[in-house]
Design a protein that fits this description.
Elements (H helix, E strand, L loop, with lengths): L3 E6 L7 H11 L3 E6 L9 H8 L17 H8 L2 E7 L1 H8 L6 H7 L5 E5 L3 H5 L1 H12 L3 E2 L3 E4 L5 E5 L3 H13 L1
Parallel strand pairs: 1-2, 1-3, 3-4, 4-5
Antiparallel strand pairs: 6-7
Helix pairs in contact: 1-2, 1-8, 3-5, 4-7
Bound molecules: flavin mononucleotide.
């Protein structure tokens, strides 16, 4: 039986890569369900993610999705693993602080399954001591991180903060699920 992945997509310039990531995860036999932060919709549309996953994308915690409610609980319960890719500095900070102000952060808070973050952001944001403290704190709590790599950043610089190669993300998901 294929495992269920809850893929959280956030408002990073790398959000378009979630589209290819869905294809790679599905090729491995995983069933993928997407959940979006509010700002992710600036970068990629629910329609795109819905078409690629063949599953309804819930992007509004208060909309009636026509399925078992509340949606953040059913999404969390359905998933064998939650993957947030790309993960913004914002979502990392919110989850570290226990904030649950949208469907994505609520579903992650409601999950007792493994959660993995694949951060993507500007190099200065990634080096920011508050972001680093949030990552350290979440790692101590058992959350997984698929570290970003050095590469070309949207701001035009080369630096650390480029989303990890998608194949690495898929490999890490497999390893976490095998544990
Ligand atoms: C063009 C553009 C690109 C952005 N890219 C990133 C990014 O790669 N990583 C990041 O942490 N924030 C990025 N941001 C800032 C986030 O979009 C912002 O913090 C947003 O509130 C994140 O919301 P979310 O975490 O709920 O998705 C970007 C903003 C803009 C306008």
């Amino acid at each position: 039986m294929g495992k269920n992945i809850l893929l959280g997509v956030t408002g990073s310039i790398a959000a378009f890569k979630a589209c290819d990531l869905i294809g790679l995860l599905r090729k491995k036999g995983y069933s993928v369900r997407c959940v979006m932060s509010r700002d992710a919709k600036w970068f990629v549309t629910p329609l795109t993610l819905e078409t690629l996953t063949q599953k309804k994308v819930i992007d509004d915690m208060f909309a009636l999705p026509g399925e078992r409610n509340p949606a953040h609980i059913s999404l969390a319960d359905e998933a064998d693993l939650a993957l947030i890719a790309p993960a913004t500095a914002d979502v990392i900070g919110k989850i570290a602080a226990g904030i649950c102000d949208d469907i994505l952060t609520c579903a992650i808070c409601a999950s007792d399954r493994p959660v993995a973050f694949a951060p993507a952001m500007n190099d200065t944001m990634f080096k920011n001591p508050i972001v680093q403290d949030n990552i350290k704190y979440l790692k101590e709590k058992g959350y997984h991180f698929i570290d970003p790599v050095e590469g070309h950043l949207a701001c035009g610089r080369e630096g650390m903060g480029h989303l990890a190669p998608l194949e690495n993300i898929v490999d890490e998901v497999g390893k976490i699920l095998e544990k």
